[in-house]
């Protein structure tokens, strides 16, 4: 059951409205998480700015795979529905790649290294080993790429925590529970 009331369009703070309207236009509807998040213009607009900046990091398949891996570790079912949908429809990842990403892997070696590293970052709270850094570098990622992976982990964790706390009603197709994959 949701733990936050969604604002009606006329209840959305004026400072959040342009950002929320842009998302709604781009997506075709207003996701419940975004409507709820928009209640705090500071948090919502900061997240939207980070999302926009990080949309230029790495490639869409790697970003979505990282989002799936992080959301799986954080147990965020709302985000798993969103990232599964975007991975399929935007990144064009096949179903088996989506499941693999949730498990912290990918068939592409460079993407696999990024996803494994992202999973290590979230699992260890950033206390990765020298071997973890070597593995992601050996796969062809630069230090700038590694910083982008860390920033993506933080961005996805922010929405994971938000959704785990407030549990907005899911508005994307449901996914198989983690224990069943």
TrEMBL record:
Protein name listed in UniProt: Putative peroxidase-related enzyme
GO molecular-function annotation terms? peroxiredoxin activity
What domain of life is recorded for the organism?
Bacteria
Tagged with keyword Cytoplasm: no
For this protein, the record's InterPro entries field holds: AhpD-like, AhpD_core, CMD-like, Uncharacterised_peroxidase-rel
Q: Which UniProt keywords apply?
A: Oxidoreductase, Peroxidase
SUPFAM superfamilies, per database record: AhpD-like
Q: Which residues form the Carboxymuconolactone decarboxylase-like domain?
A: 49-108
Q: Does the keyword Oxidoreductase apply?
A: yes
Source organism of the structure:
Paraburkholderia rhizosphaerae
